[in-house]
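Exercise 3.2. Students should predict the tertiary structure of the chain below and write it as structure tokens, then compare their answer with the key that follows.

Predict this chain's 3D structure.
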Amino acid sequence: MKPIHHQARKRFGQNFLHDPTVISRIVATIHPQAGDNMVEIGPGPGALTQPVLQRAGRLTAIELDRDVIPKLKMFCLGDGELTIIEADALKVDFAALAATTGSLRVIGNLPYNISTPLLFHLFDAVDVIQDMHFMLQKEVVERLVAAPGSKSYGRLSIMAQYFATPELMFIVKPGAFNPPPKVDSAIVRLTPKTAAQRVPVDLDLMSKVVTSAFSLRRKTLRNSLKSYLDADDFAVLGIDAKARAENLSPEDFIRITHHLEQRQAD
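Answer key:
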């Protein structure tokens, strides 16, 4: 069936996929199976929705643009059980959604303007998510997968890698979209870590420490973390105070946070 036409709206940050080769490659990467509890964020006219729905048999779509919803329903008519939630994905309770449908597989071509806060919102429900496949700005995906020492490595890398294992699957050029964005995009797969795989830590405190460390990226840790650690703390932790934030692994930041937790408890 020929894709429906819907005018992309700037206020929703919409860039709709239209390249059939790219769409097929994304669907193959997601690899939906019959019975999977698929949740799509921002389906728009349904370029991904229809082929995923046909393979999984059911899909819940979260869409903020009410004008595209009737077109989406018509486009996917007869392809499977489509449930549409008219809402801002940032306000959807994904844990509650999983309570009625079971573990979720979340997909979406995410608007660039909300991609980072939306990822953190989803990390809050990571225990009910099987996997996530997203189209994001390439720069964001590079930050998600970045290793210590690289220029893309930062707060997003550390916090995302605490919750999940991110993988850059492939790059998507602007011409695959209508209207074409000004930057390259990329498909990322995020496989959540189980509760047993995640080291228990005060996440609010860890986030503050990481944010402080990278807010003065070119400064040494002695300067960027001076409100948290002194020379004795660095010695106990075995961390070089003259290093920079980008030199520390996610595990190092967990150790720092544990050290601060212990100090507060004493």
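Discussion points: The CA atoms of residues 90 and 118 lie 6 Å apart. The domain at 10-196 is CATH 3.40.50.150 (Rossmann fold).
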